[in-house]
Amino acid sequence: MEIKQGSQSFYIGDEKNSEAEVHFVRVGETRIILDHTHVAEHLRGKNVGQQLVKAAVEYAEKEKLHVIPLCPFAKAEFEKNPEYQKLLG
After folding, report:
1. pLDDT tens digits for 30-66?
2. What is the pTM assigned to this prediction?
3. Which residue, 6, 32, 50, 67, could crosslink 87 as a Cys pair with Cβ 3.0–4.6 Å?
4. How far apart are CA 53 and CA 4, in angstroms?
5. Percentage of the chain modeled with pLDDT above 90
6. Sign of CA dihedral 58, 74, 26, 22
């Protein structure tokens, strides 16, 4: 399963009609908000959501951005993964 990067998301499938995605919004120069995660029923239970959040985290690290995880799923992933917490902001 290939995770692709869109202009404001990481997704699987087609950007306009994705099977799974984590959506983000850029806030200023130093932050992104993870505001929505969606995984189609047939992909659930396969760690797809976790992989999408991880892709967003890796992007934030590379771009030196802080992350505000407003989406409940992304927030839970940040709570489960102490290594993500250094990006909170």
Report:
1. 999 999 999 999 999 999 999 999 999 999 999 999 9
2. 0.94
3. 67
4. 12
5. 93
6. positive
Q: Which residues pair with 37 in a beta bridge?
A: 22
CA angle 78, 75, 73 (to 5 degrees): 115
The dihedral of CA 54, 57, 63, 69: what is its sign? positive
In the predicted structure, residue 14 carries a pLDDT above the cut 90: no
Query: What DSSP assignment string belongs to 3-32?
Result: -EE-SSEEEEE-STTEEEEEEEEEETTTEE
Asked: is 4-87 a CATH 3.30.360.10 domain? The reply is no
Beta pairing class for 66-69 and 31-39: parallel
The owner of tokens 């771009």 is: 63
By the 8 A CB rule, do 32 and 67 touch?
A: yes
Domain parsing of the chain, residue ranges = 4-87
Q: How many CB atoms lie within 10 A of CB 6?
A: 14
